[in-house]
Amino acid sequence: MSRRRKGRDVHGIILLDKPAGFSSNQAVQKVRWLLQARKAGHTGSLDPFATGMLPICLGEASKTAGFMLDASKTYLAEAFIGQATTTGDIEGDVCLEQPLPAIDPQLIEDVLASFCGEIEQVPPMYSALKHQGQPLYKLARAGQEVERKPRPVTIHSLDLVDWKPPLLTFKAHCSKGTYVRTLAEDIAAGLGSCAHLKNLRRIDVEPFRERDMISLEALENAVQAGKLEQILQPVDAGLVHWQWLELDAESAIRFSHGNPVETDSDKAGLIRVRDAAGKLLGIGEMTAQKLLKPRRIMHL
Fold first, then answer.
1. Does residue 47 carry a catalytic annotation?
2. Which of 15, 17, 93, 185 is the most exposed place for a label (fewest CB within 10 A)?
């Protein structure tokens, strides 16, 4: 029997450019294996057929993952207009075909504009949402369909990138919980047709940008060349918009031991906490009484 590799301590965030064909968990495990890391997780899944940004939190960075789940995201989507599938993407079977109506760029622009702002979206059956404890996609595979309540999502912007019938490419900047497959179907309905997603790429997850992504191949090369530190984002890279609070030596010890700390700070809410040397101690929450309560303690 082979011995299980315990791994090593790696702390930081890898912005993986996930390839098609990998589930998010498979991608995480691949990165964990490449880095021989003890602990790894992601901040929000991507469908297997989709590509693009998958922030992977390693080691102590995993303690920040839960605070990044609400991040807005930007997608580049290519929809096949005139053909619908059972899953809303290329992985499903064709279930409806319609003649392509007369569609011009101005009509597309008008339809896209109608979806901007807060909208109600019905989650697709092929999703990980649960109904009476069962994931919807399992019910869908069994041929069942259940009623889903519309959920509010926000479309910050929706831009036409290209229209080469029957392929419509658009860019969507949206809130968490937005199903781009459903958005593509709704856009097609507004154009008088049906659709499914042919390609989907996530290019941004706030506050990260596309230029900082790295492929599995490039990551493997960097590890072999001993250049991991050059591509590893800091543990708190996903919280750069948060305020800092610096503690003196005595208060830093109290905080690091999980004890509340009295302060004279006017800061409020969740904040990053560091010592006088700039070392990240963790995440704290300020109360109205100026008491700093530890929420996550880092061991770096």
1. yes
2. 93
